């Protein structure tokens, strides 16, 4: 059974500590029950983001959708393919190879991601990801992304309500105008959570979460 986290958030998705203050962040988008904040660190000109929303579904259903690799390419923006290289459900660890379809005339990207899933004492599910060097052969058809970190959190608000947050940053590499990248950072998480809402509204069951998240 192939079920592990694809990195959703793609070219600009990265891990930002929950403790990090957002007092200097700009609320870039606030509509359809989705909020997207953007902000910068001195170490990078590329925007970082935090996006969040709530869904009227069980936490398990929302997390299961994110973990369904086979289904990811059908609804996650810019995801061309995802391959599970390794996984350990007992430890909550995994390794993925991903190809991202960038709009023409940009060259497509790929990356290798090491991830970790966990659940805290309050029942919050977290998924953290980080790009690594190596792990899969370089392909001259793609630009390899090596500077990426990202996370997702799922907080139960009720039996059929969950708060979903995602934080992100990545260096997309190559010659891409900074203005385009930063515009993408604002729009992509909003589009992703919108599509996630549509997927979660569809009838039908969902796969059980890995043991470490139950």
From TrEMBL:
Residues covered by the START domain: 65-182
Annotated SUPFAM superfamilies: Bet v1-like
InterPro entries named among the record's database cross-references: START-like_dom_sf, START_dom_prot, START_lipid-bd_dom, START_lipid_transfer
Top-level taxon in the UniProt lineage: Bacteria
Stored Gene3D superfamilies: 3.30.530.20
Pfam families: START (PF01852)
Protein's UniProt name: START domain-containing protein
Organism per entry: Acinetobacter towneri
